[in-house]
Design goal:
This protein is an alpha/beta fold. The chain folds into 3 domains: 10-76, no CATH class; 99-266, Orthogonal Bundle (Arc Repressor Mutant, subunit A), CATH 1.10.10.10; 284-387, Trna Endonuclease, Chain: A, domain 1 (3-Layer(aba) Sandwich). 46% of the residues lie in helices and 15% in strands. It is built from 18 helices and 9 strands. The chain has helices spanning 10-23, 33-39, 43-55, 69-76, 98-101, 110-120, 124-130, 136-143, 154-162, 166-177, 183-190, 194-206, 231-239, 244-249, 252-259, 264-283, 337-349, 367-374; strands at 26-30, 60-64, 210-213, 225-228, 291-300, 307-316, 321-328, 354-361, 379-382.
Length: 389
């Protein structure tokens, strides 16, 4: 039986790795490096010394991995880190797309696949922790709406891991989840000065929990808003706090359908928009224009003085042609009135341009809209269409 070698010190272990690398090409991976660095304060300095004096011209390829973004960015890649300037490359692993998520549970319906993405944000660890067998709702009740489950405490644990004042950051996220979107609204709800609140917002933006949005094709200004970009945080803060009493008393199963499930269509509205934008930018074939970007646009109609919001505006690499899109995650088919509304909104967005209209729907389309699609006036896509070529 083979036994793993035992080393008396880090110096002994690193020396042994050095000897092996003299004879062969060696890939040395330290996973969750922040834990090692916190346990052994001098490890970064030791690695810096051996990289500079021994490994630099050798056959060893060193990979440092870590799930703590703040630690990796500031204490590994940062200017004050002993390892600063020694990396040859760095990768920030992104979440899976909505299509890639289907590889985990291909037997789920398209609607459940979308919800799974809407809950987990494409993080494989969260998908695995849900332990889905056949029923997504059952998995959510057992592995998220349950105080003893891993995922129930995940947002709090992540904030504690990344931040020094998790309670204030929690208040900032809660304020945004509750409808505050402008910095002054958020600071008022949290109860801190706007300048101080800006610091917390900046950190949450760096962590990828929040996103700062401006109407597409416009520069940041007064209409800039903050939203929760991380799907898991967005789902958790939408449904967990308001149902905490039922969760803590163990009654979640009895009220799940009325307190949570019936609101999934509303919750999935913004998620579906995100999926449709990804479809256009990454998966769609034969688009009428070459897209530079796709995002939301909102503004005020000068004629009616009412707010106008377009779910998707696809901007061109060049020229004056745009994709104008609507995304409806409703339980009823979409009618021709939606196309008429899109045309009105497009005229508010820009004058003198050519528009290509796209409507995405979870539940299909009424015959009147299908007829207009046959005439080439609009492109219609159901939820299953964005999952396949």
């Amino acid at each position: 039986m083979l036994h793993a070698p035992v080393y008396q010190s880090y110096e002994d272990a690193l020396a042994a790795i050095t000897e092996i690398s003299k004879e062969q090409r060696l890939v040395f991976v330290i996973d969750e490096y922040p834990y090692l660095a916190k346990a052994e304060k001098s490890i970064s300095s030791r690695l810096q010394h051996i990289i500079d004096h021994v490994w630099q011209n050798g056959q060893l390829f060193l990979i440092l991995c870590g799930s703590s973004m703040s630690f990796m960015e500031y204490q590994v890649l940062g200017y004050e880190s002993p390892l600063y300037g020694r990396r040859t490359a760095q990768f920030k692993l992104q979440a899976l797309t909505y299509r890639e998520v289907t590889e985990f549970h291909p037997g789920l319906s398209f609607e459940d696949q979308a919800l799974l993405y809407g809950v987990t944000g494409g993080i494989p660890h969260y998908i695995n922790k849900l332990e889905i067998e056949t029923d997504l709702d059952e998995a959510l009740r057992e592995h998220l709406f349950n105080m003893s489950s891993y995922l129930f405490e995940e947002p709090e644990n992540l904030l504690k891991q990344e931040l020094r004042e998790p309670a204030i950051y929690n208040s900032v996220i809660s304020a945004i989840a509750g409808g505050a979107s402008h910095s002054n609204e958020i600071s008022t709800k949290v109860g801190v000065e706007s300048g101080i609140c800006a610091k917390y917002l900046r950190v949450l933006l760096e962590l990828g929990i929040l996103k700062k949005e401006t109407p597409i094709a416009e520069k940041p200004g007064k209409r800039t808003i903050y939203t929760i970009d991380d799907n898991f945080f967005r789902f958790w803060y939408r449904f967990i706090p308001k149902n905490m009493s039922a969760i803590s008393s163990g009654h979640m199963e009895q009220i799940y359908d009325r307190a949570v499930k019936q609101f999934y269509s509303d919750y999935m509205g913004l998620i579906f928009e995100k999926m449709c934008r990804v479809y256009l930018l990454r998966y769609a074939n034969d688009l009428p224009i070459l897209l530079r970007d796709a995002g939301q646009w909102w503004g005020t109609d000068p004629k009616t003085h009412k707010e106008v919001q377009i779910d998707i505006v696809g901007t061109p690499v060049d020229g004056n042609e745009y994709i104008i899109g609507s995304c409806k995650y409703k339980n009823t088919p979409i009618g021709a009135d939606e196309l008429e509304l899109l045309r009105q909104y497009a005229s508010v967005f820009k004058k003198g341009c050519k528009f290509h209209y796209y409507i995405f729907s979870k539940s299909g389309f009424q015959p009147s809209l299908l007829e207009l699609a046959k005439k080439g006036e609009v492109t219609l896509l159901r939820i299953q269409d964005i999952y396949h070529e």
